[in-house]
Write a structure and sequence with these properties.
about 270 residues, alpha/beta, 2 domains, elongated
């Protein structure tokens, strides 16, 4: 099996992938003024809705064979703030394709000019954006693994998108990180309860307006939060639950129930009891 160049092989079934630290990305976003660093570009890194559309770009590539790769750099230097800049997806593609134009020196100049007047204060909103930028940093492919895969867990794979190809009948189980919402079983059960309630209401809608909408709730969650809801931090539980409750209330049946004073769901505290 060929090991992807962006990961370090540490056993036949486990790969370790390093991404920029959260503190590095928090500082980088704060200095970016929530704008793509490419000269003249006004695209935001994070939309007003909270959706992160910007990308982390490496001045010198993270992996061998990448744009402007420097074999003399250490792993820490590749993921340090000095080697990173935030851009929109379009300009990320341009700088990594037109490498003769966008040399190391030019990108360093672009980075300095963009960040010199950025703020140093890191707000809670900036911290959330940094978390999503970190989650978006890597993609890993695993072939022929029959063991467990832990996402964003120390000592295991650090990635957002995981492509698994397994020749065995039983595939690997994907474990959420210990501090994630997915690791809090009771809260996961409540969110799943709300998802089931939403789907039941949409399937029972006889007006035809709810046709197939019940199938799209997971995609809606991913659009809202930028990743699988189970991979979010446990502190985002309230946000996920509120989003699902709003979706339930907005269904035809949900509106009818509210008009008649009937609850569509129990609050978490009551449901848990």
């Amino acid at each position: 099996m060929q090991t992807p160049s962006s990961v370090q092989r540490i056993s036949p079934a486990i790969f370790l992938m390093t991404n920029p630290s959260l503190s590095t990305l928090k500082a980088l976003f704060a200095r970016s003024k929530n704008l793509c660093a490419f000269p003249g570009c006004t695209a935001p890194i994070a939309e007003d809705s909270g959706t992160v559309t910007g990308e982390v770009c490496h001045v010198r590539a993270q992996n061998a064979g990448g744009p402007r790769y420097d074999p003399d750099q250490t792993r820490d230097e590749r993921n340090a703030a000095a080697n990173l800049v935030l851009m929109c997806g379009r300009h990320h593609k341009i700088i990594d394709t037109e490498t003769q134009t966008f040399t190391v020196a030019r990108l360093q100049s672009i980075k300095r000019a963009h960040e010199e007047k950025g703020v140093a204060e890191i707000s809670p909103a900036a911290a959330r954006v940094a978390q999503q930028l970190q989650a978006n940093c890597g993609n890993v492919s695993i072939v022929g693994n029959s063991g467990n895969v832990a996402i964003q867990s120390p000592g295991a794979i650090q990635t957002q998108t995981l492509t698994i190809k397994n020749t065995r009948a039983k595939g690997p189980s994907i474990q959420p990180p210990p501090t994630s919402l997915g690791a809090a079983q009771v809260k996961v059960a409540y969110c799943q309860h709300l998802i089931d309630r939403y789907q039941d209401y949409q399937k029972a809608d006889k007006t035809g307006k709810g046709d197939y909408k019940f199938m799209a709730i997971h995609q809606a969650l991913k659009r809202k939060f930028g990743t699988s809801w189970k991979l979010l931090g446990e502190d985002r539980f309230g946000d996920v639950a509120a989003f699902l409750q709003q979706r339930i209330d907005a269904t035809i049946i949900g509106k009818l129930n509210r008009a008649k004073g009937r609850p569509n769901y129990s609050p978490f505290e009551e449901w848990h009891v």
